[in-house]
Amino acid sequence: MIKYAVSFLPILVSVLALLVNFIHGSAKNKTGIIDALSKELSNNNPNPYVVQACISRIHSSRPIPATVLKKLLCYDNAFEIIQLISYGRKILDIFSFNESGGKIFVGYSDAYKFARNRWGSGLLCLCAMLFCYYLSVTTFVNLIILVDTMTVRDSRIFSTWLALAPDIGGLLFSMIMNFLFSWQFQIILLSKQRIDRIQKLLDAGRCVSYRGRPTVRK
Which residues contact 140 (CB under 8 A, 6 or more apart)? Predict the structure, then answer.
């Protein structure tokens, strides 16, 4: 068994190297996007599409309307506001901005405006989360039983361990899905508190120009 493990060690190192390069490359890409956004905002007439695309890529969320984004980026706490609202605009589109009387407000999107829709989505995520958790536990227990009942002779055969690959893959998949559904359930459950927090930041934010000169909010 040690011989097989040593033979697969270079493959494991290669996979880890690719993962490190991917993470490092993503950080470099975001740095480039921030530079492009800074360059675009320094223009007298920034392109709304470019600004929307850059903000959406930086925060990995759905784009914010250009008219709202133009005013929002003037706030001295714009990054914190966008960071908070981006959690509800990734997989599920829960939050949305709107304007009224020259002010920016945050609330639920049309699909989640009614409480029954939020409760329905939350219940669905909870059921899926519990199912994935149950699947993870049962698969893990079955793997332990299979390994525990394995004979010494079988444990030295690589094909025996290879036969466990589908179960291991299923375990990893169910764990990932459990994390995703629990993440979305938490976002839905705490959505009202997040909206209140974002609105407080909007009300308390001071509007400044891109070049640092204070402006007066209408």
Answer: 171
